[in-house]
Fold these 4 entries.
Entry 1:
Amino acid sequence: MLPGGYNTAMSIEQLKLEVASLGDREQAELISYTLQLRHAHDPDYRREVTDRLNDADKSHWLTPAEFERRLGEN
């Protein structure tokens, strides 16, 4: 391992090229996985996600198109 926890087997650029070659579904799965890793040890984030998942008020929900639009803003 290199400083910062990087593995010498693949560079960031190689990872980017590999991710770019994935299909839409695989990229979405990878995004989900990396977000899970990022927030795995954050109890506040877990609580917020749990509250949102349990929110039955449909006025708080996003359509898939709105979700994609907002995702593209970040």
Entry 2:
Amino acid sequence: MRDQIKIEADIARTLDGPCDDGQLMQAAAAVATIDTLIVSAPEGWDASAIDPLDPKGVADLFEVFEGLRKAEDSFRKNARPQRPDVGPRTQRDDPLRVPAPVRPDAN
């Protein structure tokens, strides 16, 4: 939870508030996520210092971001308790009874 709060706060600081530009939001999220979650990077590599006009640098940024997201998703999936007795239900076991005067189809 703390990491997500740090990421969201960093995005807000970077963009100076809400942003309707999807590409700009995605770039800010990638940099904030990498800066927060990465444990070690190659010497001299800094997500915040990537030239936005360098296509290779931007592609590298998003490749690292996607890798981090996949690793995080994998971690989260494996961290959830596996309970075979819990799953989506298609209907309630204890149907709620609604009195006739309240039901829209009752006349």
Entry 3:
Amino acid sequence: MARIHGIVVLVAIAGGTALWFAAAEGDPIAPPLAEPVEPTPQSSRQGLPDAASARSRVDSKESQEEPTIPSDADVIAPPDPAPTAAPVELSVRSLADRLPIERFAWRFLPDQGQATKGEGKAGMAALTIARGARGRLLVEAEGKQPHVQDLIVPTAGGPPLLLDLFLVDVAQSAGVTLQLVDPRGDPIERARLDCWSIEATALAQDSNVDPTHAPLWKRVGLATAGTLTLPELAPGHYALRTQAVDADGFALPLQPRRFRFAFLGGEQVPLRAAFLQGVVLKLQCQDDGATPAAVDVTTRLLAGGDAIATSWQSRGADGRDSIGGDVVMLPADVRSAFALPPGAYSVELRRGAVAQTFVSGPTQDGTATYVVSMPR
């Protein structure tokens, strides 16, 4: 079958190096190949728009990872898929020397369904994603400006789609910086970040409300002297949520801060997150030897009122984390993933028809602990 050819060149801004967040996406990099191979007549290419470049850098610990989310988890693409199984083939090269980029990461966020991610090596990757899917593709490589584009995956029976990308070096002194301070003005060392790509019209919406679609990425970063630089961003419009966390990755009793901003590329965008005091809810559940199970949680102020939507971070005996909205895994080390405004709260645990309500003891160091039992 005939394949359509096209080359995508991204506008370059000379740049330096970049340090990455340690995150679920990983920190891609690998050995350059020689001259790129011309595509065969049976490949089709999809053109990409030019993009201005930008620089951003994040100081991080190599081993930190964003907790997986069972209800909306990324699906890890199988390694070394058979070429015939991939509806999309990705070629990623550097615009500066036109050599393949040694190692890079990609992530596809479909309009419906779960995100899929993987890594490419020696400038190539086979994207084993659902045929006919529509969504957004993110491609990242260390020291390069990331690329984001809308993508329509070929339907069954159609030829594979070949995307040729040329990534540019990030520009020096460009990017989004984030200063993190507590209520006393002291610097915060660690933060969990969620970043969404949004439409320009969404900039005017309430920044205290998170977008409903999946984040573009989730990272945990180490802030040197309370300031960090976000990973490289393509020009566009973004929503950002930041939650201060401790060395174990659990939320500190400081309410999350949210921002919406435009990034044009080649510029500095300084943001300042001055956290307000909050409270973290902790569920202490005795291990009764039974198999861990998911339990629905309803959070309310003791003074009354409607249920408060709460995300929970559950850490099992194996050390693995999961985050679920109004759902926890018990028994486990469970805490609210984001600090709530100060106040006294009740929590109701429900499993099937069995429900129990608990109140906490005195709040200590901003943490309210609930001694609970598994509804059985």
Entry 4:
Amino acid sequence: MSGMGLSHENMKERIFNYLEYMSEKDIREISTAIYNLARRKADKRLREEEQKDA
């Protein structure tokens, strides 16, 4: 369970359902935000691995 009391699978399902009702512009904005978040997480993980190896 997570902060909302839902499993991660349920949260993903809700997000996918909401996307059906979004405009193309909204979906582009959301996908850009998700990409940027993924890049930040990947960069953080790489920095932590580099510090661990140093």
